[in-house]
């Protein structure tokens, strides 16, 4: 039995024992878990929104907190018996406030979309609901007359939001119509300058002056440059909008003090949302930071918008945020950007076309139309060669959001694994080799498919072997031996 074998490290014993216990109930689940770590060890993971959480973070999620209901907030729950949940939720919020210098932190959101919904409804609560209650002279919505309630519901539905366009690098929760944010708000998008690919603050200001949104959303999931949040706040203030920043992608760079001054959203935004599992390297989940004026509204997130909190995940957020507060996390965050720049330079020198011509953050967006491919074809071809990426729209993408013309790659995960700038250049070479050897497959009805590709199996196998060789020098979870 592995757990009694003293030759194994504490981490190995912990994970081996967990798998043994699971295998005793449903072996296929244990096998899938073991297979997942094997896949992750073998693949070059370049998905910009993924990372490798520490063993401490992973282990914190598998415990008795999972069994507890804890609706409400610390010290004010709708359920009894929450003293231990209170401890970990308060710890997570304290660490979050300390790491990000925020006045208030709400660590209950289960995901990024949940965090954004909490933020939207907090602003609606503060700026639409509270004035309506005051005007009617009542304390809560149940006390409104039917007529006033109907008016308030209509007012909720008539608010405006200005967010970054999806194909400019924004996120679907920033007002994209298929998402609830696009259905809740009268939404308008700001894009990027067609020549430079950069945010055009003058155009944004003009649009805000004309549209007068309640909320301006800044933040991105596929924009390879920095956003000046001081300017964004100036624009928001000028038009009476609340500035919300979704820093899900770059929270690790903020925590690690790579993004400071005008590029740190926390001092400039009224409300900041994030996931905790991307560059921040925590458990899968979300979080909201805000100024004091919004705190009471944000704290109503559950049950206003969210189901019961996940105490085991809040505990893991506390552990991850404790890690993010350590000096070595700043070294890690800087290395993410150094690696991203090296990857971009490696691609550029091999002739690849990059959106904005490079990067200042953790991600690079390759316009694969210069290889004669759609994003979908490039993504699948790279996977054939053991390189995991995801396709993404480029600005004014002629192939739409499904096939796309881009491949988004990011360095948070491989930087966690220990790879550096020399390896990034090598990886750029592997990507260029695969894309250069791939072509669009002929379509059944003539012409070429947008979905299917042709890649010589020998090239795919050679690159996969090179990737495996590269990764063998950087073992993933070296303390975890499952053999
Ligand atoms: N799906 C995430 C990403 O990959 O960027 C954002 O929600």
Distinct ligands: D-serine
**Tell me, what is the CATH class of the largest domain?**
Alpha Beta
Q: Percent of residues in beta strands?
A: 5-15%
Identify the strand order in the major beta sheet: 4-10-9-8-7-5-6
Topology, number of strands: 16
What name does the CATH topology of the largest domain carry? Aspartate Aminotransferase, domain 2
As an assembly, this protein is: single chain
Radius of gyration in whole Å, from Cα? 24 Å
- How widely separated are the two ends? 12 Å
Spell out the CATH superfamily of the largest domain. Type I PLP-dependent aspartate aminotransferase-like (Major domain)
Number of domain modules = 2
Overall form: globular
What is the mean predicted local confidence, pLDDT? 96
What would you say this structure looks like, in words?
By secondary structure, the protein is of the alpha/beta class. The chain has 2 domains: 65-324, Aspartate Aminotransferase, domain 2 (3-Layer(aba) Sandwich), CATH 3.40.640.10; 327-472, Aspartate Aminotransferase, domain 1 (Alpha-Beta Complex). 46% of the residues lie in helices and 14% in strands. It contains 19 helices and 16 strands. The protein has helices spanning 10-23, 27-42, 55-60, 83-100, 112-136, 146-156, 180-184, 201-211, 229-239, 251-255, 292-298, 301-304, 311-324, 327-349, 375-384, 400-403, 412-417, 421-437, 457-472, and strands at residues 44-45, 72-73, 76-77, 104-106, 160-164, 186-190, 215-219, 242-246, 271-275, 286-290, 363-367, 387-388, 390-392, 406-410, 438-442, 448-455. The strands form 5 sheets. Strands 4-10-9-8-7-5-6 form a 7-stranded mixed beta sheet, sandwiched between helices. Strands 11-14-13 form a 3-stranded antiparallel beta sheet. The longest helix is centred in the first third of the chain and has 25 residues, at 112-136. The radius of gyration is 24 Å and the shape is globular. The mean pLDDT is 96. The structure holds D-serine. D-serine (DSN) binds at residues 49, 112, 171, 221. It comes from Actinacidiphila polyblastidii. Its EC number is 2.1.2.1.
């Amino acid at each position: 039995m592995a757990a009694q074998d003293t030759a194994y490290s504490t981490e190995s014993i912990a994970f081996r024992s967990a798998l043994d216990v699971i295998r005793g109930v449903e072996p296929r689940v244990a096998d899938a878990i073991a297979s997942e770590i094997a896949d992750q060890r073998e693949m070059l993971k370049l998905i910009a929104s993924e990372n490798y959480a520490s063993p401490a973070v992973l282990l914190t999620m598998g415990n008795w907190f999972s069994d507890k209901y804890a609706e409400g907030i610390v010290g004010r729950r709708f359920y009894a018996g929450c003293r231990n949940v209170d401890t970990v939720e308060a710890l997570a919020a304290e660490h979050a406030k300390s790491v990000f210098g925020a006045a208030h932190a709400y660590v209950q959101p289960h995901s990024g979309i949940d965090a954004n919904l909490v933020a939207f409804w907090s602003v609606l609560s503060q700026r639409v609901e509270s004035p309506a209650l005051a005007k009617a002279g009542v304390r809560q919505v149940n006390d409104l007359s039917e007529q006033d309630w109907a008016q308030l519901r209509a007012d909720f539905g008539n608010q405006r939001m200005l967010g970054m366009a999806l194909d400019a690098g924004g996120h679907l929760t920033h007002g994209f119509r298929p998402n609830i944010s696009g259905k809740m708000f009268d939404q308008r998008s700001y894009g990027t300058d067609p020549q430079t690919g950069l945010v055009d603050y003058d155009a944004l200001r003009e649009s805000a002056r004309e549209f007068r949104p309640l909320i301006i959303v800044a933040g991105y999931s596929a924009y390879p440059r920095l956003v000046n949040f001081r300017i964004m706040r100036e624009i928001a203030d000028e038009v009476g909008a609340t500035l919300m920043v979704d820093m899900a992608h770059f929270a690790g760079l903020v925590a690690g003090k790579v993004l400071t001054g005008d590029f740190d959203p926390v001092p400039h935004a009224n409300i900041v949302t994030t996931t905790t599992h991307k560059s921040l390297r925590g458990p899968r989940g979300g979080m909201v930071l805000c100024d004091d004026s919004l705190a009471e509204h944000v704290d109503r997130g559950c049950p206003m918008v969210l189901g019961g909190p996940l105490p085991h995940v809040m505990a893991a957020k506390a552990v991850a945020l404790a890690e993010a507060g350590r000096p070595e996390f700043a070294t890690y965050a800087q290395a993410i950007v150094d690696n991203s720049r090296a990857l971009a330079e490696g691609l550029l020198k091999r002739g690849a076309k990059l959106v904005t011509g490079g990067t200042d953050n953790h991600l690079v967006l390759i316009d694969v139309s210069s290889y004669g491919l759609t994003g979908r074809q490039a993504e699948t071809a790279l996977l054939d060669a053991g390189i995991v990426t995801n396709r993404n729209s480029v600005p004014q993408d002629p192939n739409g959001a499904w096939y796309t013309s881009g491949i988004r790659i990011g360095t948070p995960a491989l930087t966690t694994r220990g790879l550096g700038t020399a390896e990034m250049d090598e990886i750029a070479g592997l990507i260029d080799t695969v894309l250069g050897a791939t072509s669009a497959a002929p379509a059944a009805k003539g012409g070429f498919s947008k979905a299917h590709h042709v890649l010589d199996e020998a090239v795919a196998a050679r690159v996969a072997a090179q990737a495996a060789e590269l990764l063998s020098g950087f073992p993933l979870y070296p303390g975890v031996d499952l053999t």
